[in-house]
Specification:
Elements: E1 16-18, E2 21-23, H1 27-40, H2 46-55, H3 68-77, E3 81-86, H4 95-104, E4 108-113, E5 138-146, E6 149-151, E7 156-158, E8 161-165, E9 177-180, H5 181-187, E10 206-213
Antiparallel strand pairs: 1-2, 3-10, 4-5, 4-10, 5-8, 6-7, 8-9
Length: about 210
């Protein structure tokens, strides 16, 4: 397998007007839409996922926030085989190995990290939008693993890392972001996603990852 998952890949912004209102919290719906687009090889709009989740009461608020249980329920309802990674303490020692192994096996990923401010694209230099304070919890879609060295996709040398579709990144258009393993390692470590860390979250202490088999 090459450094990108086979087939066409879609990347779009997470910021849309849905049902007449500007939604700024749709990173989860955006990540699901991008992984479903790849898995079905047919474009799925972020707003469509928002409307499905709102219909099925899978949102924490009207702006689009959702937890991993709700994301997982959406993927299952849409017919995908999934795997979630259980929470295992404030650090996840095998996080990068887990990501690499699933990407190398041809699986799409929906990944939520706790330190989104650490995400800086090595290709365009773009950062994720943080607003008035540093970005914390954020979801995006890893869609390829590069082991390091010359990248056929980028046509240049790159460190070991992961190709991602990140709708919050400042890059414009259908372009992927490249996050080196060192950047992902800085973004992934997180405290438990539980009632104390995100009021209203009903998922309990689980790691914020869904893997999708095509």
């Amino acid at each position: 397998m090459g450094e990108l998952l086979p087939g066409k890949i879609w990347r779009e912004s997470q910021f849309y007007t849905v049902n007449g209102a500007r939604r700024t919290g749709m990173c989860n719906e955006n990540a699901i839409a991008m992984v479903e687009s790849w898995a079905t090889q047919s474009y799925v709009w972020t707003g469509t996922i928002y409307e499905r989740m709102a219909r099925d009461k899978q949102l924490l608020n009207a702006n689009g926030a959702s937890d991993i249980a709700q994301q997982h329920a959406r993927l299952v309802a849409d017919g995908f085989q999934t795997e979630t990674h259980p929470y295992a303490g404030n650090n996840w020692p095998d996080a990068l190995a887990w990501l690499h192994n699933h990407l190398d096996a041809g699986h799409g990923i929906v990944l939520m990290v706790a330190n989104g401010a650490a995400l800086v694209d090595s290709i365009g230099g773009g950062k994720d939008y943080s607003g008035a304070k540093p970005l914390a919890f954020h979801s995006f879609t890893p869609l390829g693993h590069h082991p390091g060295g010359f990248s056929q996709h980028a046509q240049r040398d790159l460190p070991a890392g992961v190709w991602c579709a990140d709708g919050d990144n400042s890059a414009v258009g259908n372009v992927l972001q490249f996050y080196p393993d060192t950047v992902l390692a800085a973004a992934i470590p997180a405290p438990p996603m539980d009632e104390d860390s995100w009021p209203g979250d009903s998922c309990g202490p689980v790691r914020i990852v869904c893997m999708v088999r095509r």
